[in-house]
Amino acid sequence: MTIACYHLLSSQQTATGRPILNDISCQIEAGEFVAILGLNGAGKSSLLKSFVGLLPLKQGEIRVHDNLITAHNLKKIRRYLAMIFQGGGLIHQLSALDNVLCGLLGSRSSWQTLTGFKQSDRGLALNLLTDLGLQEQAEQRVSQLSGGQQQRVAIARALITKPKLIICDEPVSMLDASVQSQVLDLMLELKSAFNLTYLFITHDLWVARFLCDRIAVMNRGQIVEIGETESIFTHPQNEYTQKLLKAAPLLAKVA
Question: Are 21 and 13 in contact (CB under 8 A)?
């Protein structure tokens, strides 16, 4: 089953008149772990903004679970789409449990309505935190938690709506190496346990190779190459992809 597909041009342009995103096409199947890989300025963040309706399209479309993403149906799309942000994107004055409940809200700014949740919602949030090893931290403010614990709270918040697709925006880039490894292992475990589909936005070659089934390489607002992860690393076809791998020669030799 196809979870997401997109073919788009951005209506926004650079100072030189070149589209920020140009002729991007990709299809994500259920259960896949797909990376969007590129250096800073490649267009990864703009692609993410298109997925959540923040960057209007001039041509083309994005669909999630066969629902067209538009500015008018974002509330409906949130049933199928969740995000894990760089640094977690948590509200630090709230507890871990309340941050997870925020995943059920229409927007980050409406967290003041948390008192209206059903007991069943709070039970679901607590169960997710328990599954992620955070039962004892559920009532603590997230400002009191470690970086790895905060990122697990962010993952629980993404899971609470039982999404079809989770978009991850550099979710481990601000963590140290040992914590990165723990979080990445957890994401793979959850993929299997919850039959998750991930779109993973990163500039990190190591992370992409460790996690992903397929990789789409972006440069200057375009996907210049897409393919199975091992094929990208062992037989890159595009000159830009080859340059990326040459910048990490030890990684290219990893079996």
Answer: no
Domains of the chain are 1-80+165-255 (3.40.50.300), 90-162 (no CATH)
Distance CA 253, CA 255 (A): 6
| pLDDT tens for each residue of 164-213 | 899 998 888 878 888 888 888 888 998 988 889 999 998 888 889 989 99
Cβ–Cβ < 8 Å for 100, 128: yes
Strand partners for 198 = 33, 166
3-state secondary structure of 127: helix
- Using CA atoms, how far residue 225 sits from 207, 232, 240, in Å, is 18, 8, 9
216's tokens: 């789409």
Quote the pTM value: 0.84
